[in-house]
């Protein structure tokens, strides 16, 4: 998900993939398509990739998969305070009409992603959405364990540090401490800064139209 904020055009390909798999629109992605979308990545995580575990494993059968064991309620609350809040906020919904290059792509892709995965993306029905998301969360984990052979996956618990990861990935343990970042707080700071930047971008881009509209309005009022 974070990579999409840096490369908004990736959202177009993810939306193509979602529509093909979940809505039967267009052709399903092949390895060439996944290479085009993900070929620059050393690793991928979270959504949107989690929605395509069978497809990605078929494309990259030698991949190693780390299944991070996390409390479902903690995950849901974190999601609600980060990507969910970003995509459903009135500010970004309005901004998406004016700033299409990044904001509209991100809002559209996130909404489509969660509707396809969980069937609901609507804060007006919080109880139903929570139940659907937690059920979908379990399905994704079950699918990963069913698709990826045991020898190619690691069941990892937060707090275990570097050793299990490095042993699984056959790499040396770093000398620096394992990172501990408040992802929710960090996400909020980054999104606030990005939203301000996108409002400025939208204002500059739409300024000629606004000036033109004001000029026409002024002329009409002048000649009345």
Which residues form runs of ≥5 with pLDDT under 50? 209-222
Report the major sheet: 2 strands, parallel
Q: SSE order in H/E notation? A: HHHHEHHHHHEHH
| Rounded mean pLDDT score | 82
- The level of helicity is 55-70%
Radius of gyration: 21 Å
Total count of helical runs of at least 4 residues = 11
Order of the strands making up the biggest sheet: 1-2
Describe the protein.
It is a single chain. With 224 residues, this protein is mainly α. It contains eleven helices and two strands; from the N terminus they run H-H-H-H-E-H-H-H-H-H-E-H-H. Strands 1-2 form a two-stranded parallel ribbon. The chain starts with a helix and ends with a helix. 17% of the residues are buried. The model is unreliable at 209-222 (pLDDT under 50).
Précis, in short:
The protein has 224 residues and is mainly alpha-helical.
Topology:
Blueprint: H1 2-6, H2 10-23, H3 31-38, H4 53-59, E1 65-69, H5 72-80, H6 83-88, H7 90-98, H8 100-118, H9 126-147, E2 153-157, H10 162-169, H11 183-223
Parallel strand pairs: 1-2
Helix pairs in contact: 2-8, 7-8
Keywords, separated by commas or semicolons:
disordered C terminus
